[in-house]
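Researcher: Sequence recovery benchmark, item below. Answer with residues only.
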């Protein structure tokens, strides 16, 4: 009985959980990437005028 439950959990676990998990990772990575690119743009704006002048 216990083994059957474990097997069901294992076979069910990857598909549903992985799809949710991967979409969560995508959202997180996208958010982090946006924040990083914003910071980089801000840094570039601060440094570029000084370099040009």
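Model:
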């Amino acid at each position: 009985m216990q083994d059957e439950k474990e097997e069901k959990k294992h076979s069910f676990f990857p598909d549903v959980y992985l799809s949710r998990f991967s979409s969560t990772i995508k959202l997180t990575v996208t958010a982090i990437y946006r924040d990083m690119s914003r910071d980089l743009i801000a840094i570039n704006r601060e440094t570029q005028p000084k370099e040009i002048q």
